[in-house]
Structure formats: structure tokens, C-alpha cells
């Protein structure tokens, strides 16, 4: 029933002792990087004597990773690093993360442990419908499933008919899939005149983007399977940070690899278990790029009641939202500022714009409403079409997703009272749930 009984059922005392030792080890490793080395020089990083003292360590922010791009947080020489990944969704200064061989082994181990917990076993056929490349969802699960011993199909994203063909002909038992794509795939299954009974599917691992309990249940109903929530972020390794067990009441956060805290995002104050706030994580075993008190910006709470599955690692609740303005569009992370920077450089673009996010056929779609410059607006139809295409191409290059672009006359977007409203997320009201 356990992949690693000792690690998964360690007593809380043992876990705390281990965490204290590993945090101090992480501090020794981290200060070898230029970024943390400087903080140590300033007296901001000191070894700790008890877990109570973790709160005295400084936070690390996504902006620290960006500002010290590319190698400022690398804590060892480049010849020890063997892989780079990056947070999804940007072609600008991305958040890059490095891994040693041991980091990759630990990561694969965490995913093997996670999927085993949900019920994946050798003999299963595992189809990984996630992006292979810089995004951690593809390679992360891939090596985890191979480590576990499941026959792995690296089918990647898209091409729904082919995905279904694999599901059917290979008798796939488990998939890794974005929740939004799972709902879309269910409609294609229907179009292909197939029923869940025609497949051999037993379970899905869903994550990388926010989704509701209702959406999970919809996926379970449409495929007649169990769907397990999976959480992680590139900065900590990728997926495999927290995962649901068969009881599906929150995700066990692997506390022998990460030290979690929940803070009030406004004040930075640490909150007790059970209170909702922002998840902050310290890596305990990472070597290439250890992180101290990394602000994930994800809002959740820690559930510390014992779980009937017998694992001692505390759970985190389904992610409720973010404490910053990051948008997740079909699993791709996008900041509204990236959009603004991209469009404002294009001649003909006026002063006001609105980013609308819709659900279309179960998938997320950005609608960009952009006011045209008054001078430009009196120009030709060809000129307008060219502008529309230029904006669309520039956004595609920057965001890696294709938005629909609507050009509006000057003043076409109603002026906001006070702060301009740049984002209108219509997804929750449009999510069809039958
Ligand atoms: O999305 C890693 C991942 C891949 C997780 C596959 C699960 C499955 P990033 O691209 O760095 O990494 O994006 C991380 O995605 O901070 C959350 O805001 C969001 N996120 C990830 N998993 C969940 C989830 C991957 N289960 C960011 N529920 C995180 C809600 C999630 N949000």
C-alpha cells in the first residue's frame, strides 16, 4: 500500500527532527549561491536551533529569481547541474530552475510515491498528456511513472482523436491531464461515439491549474474514473510536491522534502494550521537550487487532522486562488503585465485595453479587447487587419497561447471609475457543469 512506508508514515517527532537538520543543511548549500551568499553577508541568514526560528529567515520571491536570472541562485558549479526547467508561459526573462542528477532522482521518487499512493502500479499503462519540454508536467511525471514501473506513453499535448485512439488501443489505465483538457477530451470521446466503458481507464492525475471540486467530479463522472489532484511548481521541482491519496480530502504535502508555512500575504506573519493564507515553502533536499521560504503566492490552508490512509504528512487544501495577479490559461502561467508590455510597443495600439478570459468548449481562451489609436482608427481596413494580426502574433510569441484580438474604436472600453480594470475572468460563470 505504501511506496516507501518508512518515509510516508514517519512520526511527527521524527519528521520535525529531520526537517530541522535538513533546513540547516539547505542553508549551508544555499549560501554558496551569489544571491543567498549576499544575504548571508548582510547577516540575514543564520542557522536555526528550532523550527520556530524558520520565521526569522528572509522570504524568497519570484522576482528574486527573475532579477538574478540566469545563474544567481545556482548553489553549485555548473558541471554539477544536468537539467534546466522553467515556469510555464513566458519567453521573456523566465523563472529558470536547475537540477543535479540527485535532484532529478529525488523528483522522480516523489512522483513515483505520489502516483503509487493514488493506485498506479507496474502493469498499468500510463498516458502522459502534458507538455514535454521546459514545462515540468511532462518530464516530471514521465520519469516518476518509469521509476514506479508503469508502461509510459509520452503522448504529450493536443491531438484529441489520437489521444483517444491511444486510450482505446493501448488499454490505457491512467492519464496525466490538465483538468480543463479532460473535460474537452470527454466531448471528443462522445463525438467519436465512444463510452467510458469502451476504455480501460481507471484514474487521472489532474493539476497544474486551479479547478473546483465540482470540476473533478465532472471528470470522474464523464470517464467513470477517480481523478486525483496534484500540486507543484517549477521552482520547487515541478509536480510531486503535494498529491491526493485515495481518500481525496486534501493533498499530502511531502514534508520530508519540503517545509511548508502558511502566511498572511499582507503582513508576512505565520498563521496556525487550519487558517487560510499563502503557502511558503523551504526545500529540504534540493541541491542545484535550494530555496528558503519561497513565496508560492498560492492560497490554501494546512489540514493537520490524521488521514485514514495512515500517512503522517499533513495535507493542503485545494488551491483557492493566488495572492498575486498571475493567470493560469490552460496550465500556462501568464502575468497581465506581460500582455501590457507586449501590446503597448505596437504602433496603432491606443491607451485602453481589457483582457477577458472565457471558457470555450471547456478550454480557456483569452479575448483581447484593444482600443485603437485615434489617428490609426481613421485608416484603412487593411491597416486594421494588419494591426490585428500584428497584435495576435506578438502575443502568441510572448505568451505561447493564441488570443482572439478585437479592435475597438477609441473610447470603446467603458472608462473605469478609479483604478483601471484590466482583467475580466469570466471562466467560473461559464464553466458548464451538468
Ligand atoms: O504547473 C507544475 C505542475 C505540473 C503541477 C503538472 C501539477 C501537474 P508551474 O508551471 O511552475 O508548475 O506552475 C505552478 O500552477 O504555483 C499554482 O498556481 C498552479 N498549480 C499547480 N498545480 C495546481 C493545482 C506546474 N493542483 C503554479 N491546483 C502553482 C491549482 C495549481 N493550481
Amino acid at each position: 500500500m505504501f511506496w516507501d512506508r518508512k518515509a510516508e508514515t514517519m512520526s511527527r517527532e521524527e519528521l520535525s527532527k529531520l526537517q530541522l537538520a535538513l533546513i540547516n543543511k539547505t542553508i549551508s548549500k544555499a549560501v554558496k549561491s551569489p544571491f543567498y551568499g549576499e544575504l548571508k553577508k548582510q547577516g540575514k541568514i543564520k542557522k536555526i536551533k528550532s523550527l520556530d526560528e524558520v520565521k526569522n529567515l528572509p522570504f524568497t520571491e519570484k522576482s528574486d529569481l527573475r532579477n538574478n536570472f540566469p545563474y544567481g541562485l545556482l548553489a553549485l558549479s555548473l558541471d554539477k547541474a544536468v537539467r534546466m526547467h522553467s515556469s510555464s508561459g513566458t519567453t521573456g526573462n523566465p523563472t529558470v530552475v536547475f537540477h543535479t542528477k540527485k535532484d532529478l532522482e529525488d523528483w522522480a521518487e516523489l512522483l513515483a510515491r505520489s502516483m503509487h499512493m493514488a493506485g498506479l502500479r507496474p502493469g498499468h499503462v500510463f498516458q502522459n498528456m502534458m507538455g514535454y519540454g521546459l514545462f515540468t508536467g511532462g518530464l516530471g511525471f514521465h520519469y516518476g511513472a518509469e521509476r514506479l514501473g508503469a508502461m509510459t506513453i509520452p503522448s504529450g499535448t493536443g491531438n484529441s482523436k489520437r489521444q483517444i485512439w491511444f486510450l482505446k488501443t493501448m488499454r490505457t489505465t491512467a492519464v496525466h491531464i490538465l483538468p480543463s483538457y479532460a473535460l474537452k477530451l470527454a466531448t471528443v470521446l462522445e463525438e467519436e461515439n465512444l463510452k467510458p466503458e469502451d476504455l480501460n481507464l481507471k484514474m487521472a492525475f489532474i493539476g497544474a491549474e486551479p479547478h473546483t471540486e465540482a470540476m473533478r467530479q465532472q471528470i470522474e463522472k464523464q470517464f467513470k474514473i477517480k481523478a486525483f489532484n496534484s500540486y507543484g511548481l517549477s521552482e520547487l521541482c515541478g509536480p510531486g510536491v503535494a498529491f491526493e491519496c485515495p481518500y481525496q480530502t486534501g493533498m499530502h504535502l511531502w514534508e520530508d522534502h519540503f517545509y511548508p508555512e502558511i502566511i498572511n500575504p499582507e503582513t508576512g506573519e505565520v498563521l496556525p494550521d487550519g487558517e487560510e493564507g499563502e503557502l511558503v515553502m523551504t526545500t529540504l533536499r534540493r541541491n542545484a537550487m535550494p530555496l528558503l521560504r519561497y513565496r508560492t503566492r498560492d492560497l490554501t490552508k494546512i489540514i493537520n487532522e490524521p488521514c485514514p490512509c495512515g500517512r503522517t504528512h499533513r495535507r493542503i487544501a485545494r488551491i483557492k486562488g493566488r495572492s498575486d495577479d498571475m493567470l493560469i490559461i490552460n496550465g500556462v502561467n501568464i502575468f497581465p503585465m506581460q500582455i501590457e508590455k507586449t501590446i503597448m510597443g505596437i504602433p496603432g495600439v491606443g491607451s485602453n485595453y481589457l483582457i477577458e478570459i472565457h471558457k470555450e468548449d471547456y478550454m480557456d481562451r483569452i479575448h483581447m479587447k484593444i482600443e485603437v489609436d485615434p489617428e490609426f482608427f481613421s485608416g484603412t481596413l487593411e491597416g486594421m487587419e494588419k494591426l490585428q494580426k500584428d497584435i495576435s502574433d506578438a502575443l502568441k510569441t510572448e505568451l505561447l497561447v493564441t488570443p482572439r484580438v478585437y479592435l475597438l474604436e477609441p473610447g470603446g472600453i467603458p472608462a473605469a471609475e478609479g483604478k483601471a480594470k484590466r482583467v475580466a475572468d469570466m471562466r467560473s460563470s461559464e464553466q458548464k457543469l451538468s
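The chain has two domains: 5-324, 332-433. Residues 12-30 form the longest helix (19 residues).
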